[in-house]
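Translate sequence into structure tokens.
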Amino acid sequence: MTLLSHSLKVRHLILAAALTTGPGFVNPANAEIAFLVDLNSRTAIDLGNLGGAGSYANGINDAGQVVGYSSIAEGNDHAFITGPNGRGMRDLGTLGGNWSQASGINDTGQVVGYSLTADRTPHAFITGPDGVGMRDLGTLGGNASMAYGINDAGQVVGGSLTAEGSGHAFITGPNGVGMTDLNSLVELPPGIVLATATGINNEGQVLITSPIPEPEAYALMLAGLVLVGAVIRRKEIL
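Result follows.
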């Protein structure tokens, strides 16, 4: 049995998908394999790996550059980027640790994700165009952060621990400059904390998840509150 991963990203009938080979295939490790599927040409391209057993695709841009992570020969996972149309997988390296993952990519090829640093704490990163150069985005005062989305201006969103140890959503300025707590930029009902930002579009609209508030205060609030349309214009953070 072959299962399409729930995290596939679709654009213009081209998608990056992680396929899991199950018991019906000769694959005792049950490895995941990243593919680029072009529904126009009805082709599926195996994206390969970085020398290890499997790979996993998380994002794709309009040129067909795919990002995600793959195991390397030593067994750890490293973030990767491909060339246009999924051709040629390249290791993006790490922030000094032994592990990294790529979460998103914009149309200039800037990649975001998270990586272990030399002191073994996860930090959000951004690269330059075409995945060149990995830069630490820092944190909101705590010891960990993760980046999940980026728009074409290079504004990055994700989540970070604060100095007090709470998880807060963040946004940066263009090209990943300056990390700002999203909770400081919007008016929120009492008890609501914006915990993680998972995506941002070219209008600066940010997709957020938040823990469920106390039931007596918000009995009708849905699990994983999603705030769509919290418009964070660039001018508000520059």
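Note: The chain has no helices and 20 strands.
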